Amino acid sequence: MAVVPRNPHNLRPLSISWGEISRADGSARFAFGTTQAIASVSGPIEVRQMVELPSRATLEVLVRPLSGVPGTTEKSLGKRLRDILEHALLLSHHPRTLIQLVAQSLSPSPSLPSPSPSSSSSSSSPSLPSSSHHSLAAALINASSLALLHAASIPMRATLCAVTVGKQKLTTTATNTHPGADSHSVLVLDPEGEVEERGCFAFLFGAAVGGGGGGGALEGEVVWADWSGAFNEDEYLQAVELARLGAKKVLRFIKTEMALKNGFMQDDIDCDNGMDLS
Amino acid sequence: MASTGTSSQSTKLEASTFQRLHPRAYFERFLAEGIRTDGREALGWRGVNVNVGSISTADGSALVRLGDTTIVCGVKAEIAQPNLERPDEGFIVPNIDLPAICSPKFKPGAPGEEAQVISDRINEILLSSGVIPLSSLCIHPKKAAWVLYIDATCINYDGNVIDATLIAVMAALKNTRIPVPTFDEEAGTTICSRVNKVSLTITRTPLSASFAVFDGTHLLADPSAFEEPLIETSVTVVVDEHGELASVTQVGVGSLAGGSQSMSECIKAAKQRRRQLGELVGEIS
């Protein structure tokens, strides 16, 4: 029985909400459909001496799951986000200060198999699709980026946008185990439900990014790739290009929402007068 | 006017002082000559040494040296009740520790960020590559299943812990022999044979190859502890024994000056490296 292929370029309905955390310098909520995350930024603020740096601001990124204590997955995500943002933000403008970014998932993390008899993970998620961690990672990255834009207190070289890419099997017969010879599946953006998630990509959009001067503003520079499952190089490159299209859509949506927030009229935005976020 | 002996001594002192005070400039000088600080080429790898089965109290063990980076890994199998949601699956619990002994950058106490990040990465690689099907660890559905505790400890840190750790984990898993279990329905307990032992069902042997980009121009393989703080992009490619890609991770800007994308070169070099490792080390072919 053939599965109806969905449009590979569609993202789930995106939504952004600004400034919900009133005490932080900047905050924003981002969602791909029902996968949501919220982030807050405080900074430049007072830094504790142990992490103070003489020539630039210290950046701290904390990622928190919806329920439970932050584990190694959250730590890993936080570190990678920090590595990218340290290059995207002009931290040298605020030496001896702290920029604190906290990203909170608003959707449940996929439950990891754990051997302890009274593990919280086995009781917290009733009947959710597994492996949605790439989607959640993408939402957290986007929320962080938006929070930084909302705060507008640290100069940024570029805007960071992330999307997830998955693989939809076109026939429900036995899965094709040989990678590469895939006439039975297609790459799709922002997978949900039955479509298998394969990876998360994030791009930096800014004129100052990338080796080929100026290209970064329009086409984006891939700064985060996390792709797994049996594949060959061609499939990976296709996934990157598909993700790039998706990230550009996210960027366009961010620009529109930001313009609306700042009082621009919908007609003016539609003319795409190129609000330069680079 | 200093004598020849004293001046050559002070020149030697100056080089190592220069390295400590200006690591970036020191590194750039080497790269300008086309080599790295330890004499390797840009895409050169350090030698690998694997020793298995040395820990008799563990069900499987391996000691790996990648250059100076040394990892000890032990596998212990215990029995636990499967999760209600996954009644016929066992568990794999990898844990990597970077204690204070391996490097001055780690302080004693709770696992630091780097240890947690590497633990998470190893867990992801093992699960997403399907190295050991969790169903093969089931002893009796809903009642008993194996839990494989994989504990790796770094005892000397010289960069690229992820590659060394994955080699150690795979070698230890291949070395692991677990007793043949029999589930006693009446008593509700598992009895393990003292004599009969079996190996684990290992369907794939993925190994990683890590790279770094320095200054947007130089693509380097297998970064050392000196190079790691200086680089802005890191790429890890995981390849299995058939030359098939299992996963790729990139953090940082991927494109190099001149327009090429570092990922394509990394994938090519990673496949070569996997072949080379398979030939060099029988324990992980």
UniProtKB/TrEMBL annotation, chain A:
Span of domain Exoribonuclease phosphorolytic = 11-151
Q: Where mainly found?
A: nucleus
A Gene Ontology molecular function term for this protein is: RNA binding
Q: Which family does it belong to?
A: Belongs to the RNase PH family.
Q: Cellular component per GO?
A: cytoplasmic exosome (RNase complex); nuclear exosome (RNase complex); nucleolus
The UniProt regions of compositional bias labelled Low complexity, in chain numbering, are 117-129
- What biological processes does GO assign it? nuclear mRNA surveillance; poly(A)-dependent snoRNA 3'-end processing; rRNA catabolic process; rRNA processing; U4 snRNA 3'-end processing
Q: Does the keyword Nucleus apply?
A: yes
Gene3D superfamilies xref list? GHMP Kinase, N-terminal domain (3.30.230.70)
Protein known as: Exoribonuclease phosphorolytic domain-containing protein
Where is this protein found?
Nucleus
- Key words of the record: Exosome, Nucleus, rRNA processing
Automatic annotation (TrEMBL), chain B:
Record-level GO cellular component terms: cytoplasmic exosome (RNase complex); nuclear exosome (RNase complex); nucleolus
Gene Ontology BP, a term: U5 snRNA 3'-end processing
Q: Which GO terms describe its molecular function?
A: mRNA 3'-UTR AU-rich region binding
The record's listing under Pfam families reads: RNase_PH (PF01138), RNase_PH_C (PF03725)
Q: Where, subcellularly, is it found?
A: Cytoplasm; Nucleus, Nucleolus
Q: Which PANTHER family match?
A: EXOSOME COMPLEX COMPONENT RRP43, EXOSOME COMPLEX EXONUCLEASE RIBOSOMAL RNA PROCESSING PROTEIN
| Alphabetized Gene3D superfamilies for the sequence | GHMP Kinase, N-terminal domain (3.30.230.70)
The family note in this entry says:
Belongs to the RNase PH family.
Concerning CDD domains, the annotation shows:
RNase_PH_RRP43
Q: Which protein are we looking at?
A: Ribosomal RNA-processing protein 43
Which InterPro entries does this one have? ExoRNase_PH_dom1, ExoRNase_PH_dom2, ExoRNase_PH_dom2_sf, Exosome_comp_Rrp42_subfam, PNPase/RNase_PH_dom_sf, Ribosomal_Su5_D2-typ_SF, Rrp43
Q: Give the Exoribonuclease phosphorolytic domain ranges.
A: 46-179, 206-272
What are the record keywords, sorted? Cytoplasm, Exosome, Nucleus, RNA-binding, rRNA processing
